[in-house]
Design a protein that fits this description.
seven-stranded parallel beta sheet; Rossmann fold; binds magnesium ion; binds adenosine-5'-diphosphate; 24 helices; about 725 residues; globular; OB fold (Dihydrolipoamide Acetyltransferase, E2P); alpha/beta
């Protein structure tokens, strides 16, 4: 009997071994490998009346195939070009494929051998009097005597599978055909009532139709079912997590009148915004309950999330517990440590001369701390003398032991995964409260999928008195514009202000991490190690210029940041290490070099470093991107608004799914295949409701064993991903 978990080899057929080596080990793996798209046989074009720019699908025999190499001017590396001629029976079309890696070029050469039959789809262009498709989608078929014969074997709707050179889409199609005949049953993750309410086809039909559709209607119905399955499994896992949390008991942290929080509030140098007050109340109320808080705090760059977190931390310390603040970078951890210590003043000097009687201590724990400092910090953490512990992922290490960890705050969540949060919460005796903060607005669907176990609060307003920031796109080639930018920095410094200059690279030798970038960008990017001395000796001669980047030691980074914060450095030339959270209100100008190299959210974050005080800010996005390039559009969007929520929409529209979800959700075969967190908000929402309702009736998923198994598998794959991330 052949079941879902049976090895693919048992299916038989000549290609089973190849398919197994391709990574599809079991029948389940194979059948879940669904077509990327379909081509309708009737859409195959007869290249009779061609127009440039047409989208063309042709079927034919390769009559010539030749590989050539050329030199990429920018990377100074060898690149490959496969030139192919296809005979469609009535005419000839040239195909050109570009590759930048030897492995890919090899693969391409083998795949496109003379005599092979294939389908090729792409946009038509005209080059040297020939019609040509550049990098067309390709699907190869087994050899035949004639084009017409080969065409016979092609179904009306041709599934196009993600394939490789050793396993053609065709091989997959054959093995899948066999598997569908011999497989005995399909795992069914949907309760029958949910299936009916959603009007979905049964799971066996869905698999048959997705692989061997006879009509578009079948494709649509099949995809609808399989998509819903994915949403339902994810949501069942999250619903179970929420249910578990609801039944978890933890120490309520109710604080005390006249404690550190009250003293801190009394001396706050500003008024809390309405949002800070509201979210603050919400958080304090939750901390006082016997259930662990799990809250996501989204807030525009500069909206003052740190104060909200600090107040929560003080409440926990007032209740005899400890709070940990986890930051994504060393620079940010150091800054948090510095500002929190400064804001608390004598409240942070517990047990020291000049400290208040009930004061606490703020410890800093990062990976590159010296041995002595580390030992001291660890001691403070373990003994409980440090009520607040600020750190990077070094905090996650096994050896870090808290006395009574009551609250975990994670700053800038997008750099931390679910499992990392879990690692830290595992350090507490009773489950701690968790507050996650992010300035990158998270779309509702992603929040529901990835962060589905968190409640959300949002800080929309900025503290009043915040200055405007003007953003201008500066074309690097235009004469005089860049000089004018440096002049603006000199003027601002003359008024007592400070400036950032941001580069995409540390040193000029750094290899371009983006080999896919096209040739037209063949030029050197500005680098910190080159630009800083250049500016210091040239355009910014009279000013105090320092540089900052990730390869400096922790001490050196801390010193530079301190000098910049205290005003003894005028201009900081840096990489994106300052991207998140860095807070120097006196800085008023930012010049971003090679701005097209940065994403929308990243630019928004970077720009958030200025305009934090009352000084009008100026952000200059320097770029050499051509007038018609999409990069320029992106920069214009950033220049056009300071609304992070608006920009996140622009950003999402430009990014791919994987970037949105992060490695955890996208990297694995077992994760989302059909469901798109960008476009399937509807499905996700309905699945969430249905899963929650089902869990209330069937908390252990005993009524749907296949669902229980799928949820378990999803959980395991998340854990495995975490281990891989190290
Ligand atoms: P973010 O939300 O981006 O992390 P921060 O917490 O770093 O922002 O706050 C940005 C700056 O605003 C800090 O200098 C902070 O002291 C200040 N700030 C926070 N809340 C207020 C407020 N209510 N009024 C004035 N300034 C505030
Ligand atoms: Mg912050």
């Amino acid at each position: 009997m052949i079941s879902w978990d049976t090895k693919v080899a048992a299916v038989g057929g000549k290609d089973a071994k190849k398919v197994d080596r391709f990574g599809l080990r079991t029948v389940g793996d194979l059948l879940q490998h669904v077509p990327r798209r379909y081509i309708r046989k009737g859409d195959i074009d007869d290249p009779g009346s061609l127009r440039e720019g047409d989208h063309l699908t042709v079927f034919g025999c390769i009559v010539a195939s030749e590989q050539k190499t050329w030199q990429d001017k920018r990377t100074r590396r060898t690149a490959w070009r496969q030139e192919v001629v296809v005979d469609t029976g009535t005419s000839r079309v040239d195909l050109t494929f570009f590759d930048r890696q030897a492995g890919m070029a090899d693969w391409r050469r083998k795949k496109l051998e003379t005599g092979g039959y294939g389908l090729f789809a792409g946009q038509l262009s005209r080059w040297r009097d020939h019609w040509q498709l550049t990098n067309p989608d390709t699907q190869m078929y087994p050899p035949a005597d004639e084009v017409a014969d080969a065409m016979q074997g092609v179904p009306d709707l041709i599934p196009v599978y993600p394939a490789s050179s050793s396993v053609q889409s065709w091989d997959l199609q054959e093995t899948i055909k066999l598997a569908l005949v011999v497989v005995d049953g399909f795992p069914d993750v949907l309760p029958e009532d949910v299936r009916r309410a959603e009007d979905l086809v049964d799971v066996g039909t869905a698999y048959r139709w997705v692989h061997q559709p006879e009509s578009w209607a079948q494709v649509v119905a099949a995809r609808k079912r399989l998509k819903y399955d994915e949403a339902f499994v994810t949501q069942a896992l999250l619903a179970r997590r929420r249910a578990t949390l609801e039944h978890t008991v933890t120490s309520p942290r109710t604080g005390r009148a006249g404690g550190l929080l009250d003293q801190f509030d009394a001396r706050l140098p500003f008024e809390l915004t309405a949002g800070q007050r509201e979210v603050g109340e919400e958080v304090l109320a939750e901390l006082g309950q016997g259930r662990p808080m799990h809250r996501l705090l989204q807030g525009e760059v500069g909206s003052g999330k740190t104060v909200v977190a600090l107040r929560a931390m003080l409440r926990v310390v007032d209740s005899g517990g400890q709070a940990a603040l986890l930051a994504p970078t060393e620079v940010l951890a150091q800054q948090h440590h510095r500002t929190i210590t400064a804001m608390l003043g004598d409240l942070a000097r517990g047990g020291e001369l000049g400290g208040t009687a009930d004061g606490t201590r703020v410890a800093l724990l990062t990976g590159s701390l010296g041995a002595a400092a580390r030992k001291r910090a660890m001691l403070d953490v373990t003994s409980g003398e440090a009520g607040i512990v600020v750190g990077t992922h070094a905090l996650l290490e096994d050896r870090v032991d808290f006395s009574d960890l009551g609250l975990v705050v994670v700053d800038e969540q997008h750099r931390f995964g679910v499992e990392q949060r879990a690692a830290l919460t595992a350090k507490a005796g009773t489950p701690p409260h968790v507050l996650v903060m992010t300035a990158t607005p998270i779309p509702r669907t992603v929040a529901m999928t990835v962060f589905g176990d968190l409640d959300t609060s949002t800080l929309r307003e900025l503290p009043s008195g915040r200055a405007e920031v003007q953003t201008i796109v500066v074309p690097e080639q235009a004469p005089g514009w860049l000089d004018r930018a440096w002049q603006r920095i000199r003027e601002e410094v003359a008024r007592g202000r400070q400036a950032y200059v941001v580069c995409a690279r540390i040193s000029a030798e750094d290899t371009d991490p983006d080999p896919g970038a096209d040739e037209s960008e063949a030029r050197q990017l500005h680098a910190v190690e080159q630009l800083a001395p250049d500016l210091a000796a040239g355009a910014l001669q009279q000013l105090r210029v320092a540089s900052l980047h990730g390869r400096m030691s922790a001490d050196a980074k801390e010193r530079v940041m301190q000098d910049f914060a205290s005003g003894s450095v005028d201009v900081l030339v840096s990489t994106t290490v300052i991207e998140v959270g860095v807070d120097v209100p006196n800085a008023s100008v930012m010049v971003v070099m090679d701005a097209e190299r940065f994403g929308v959210s990243q630019l928004h974050q970077l720009r958030g470093r200025i305009g934090r005080g009352s000084h009008v800010g100026l952000c200059l996005l320097v770029t050499a991107a051509g007038a018609a390039s999409p990069s320029l559009e992106r920069l214009a969007a950033v220049a056009g608004t300071r609304d992070g929520f608006e920009l996140s929409r622009v950003d999402l529209a430009q990014r791919r799914e994987g970037d949105v979800l992060g490695k955890q959700q996208s990297g694995r075969r077992s994760s989302l295949r059909m469901l798109s967190v960008l476009t399937d908000e509807d499905v996700i929402g309905r699945a969430r409701e249905a899963a929650t309702a089902h869990l209330a009736r069937d908390p252990r998923l005993e009524q749907v064993p296949d669902l229980a198994a799928a949820v378990r598998a999803l959980e395991e794959s998340e854990r495995a991903d975490f281990l891989e991330m190290g």
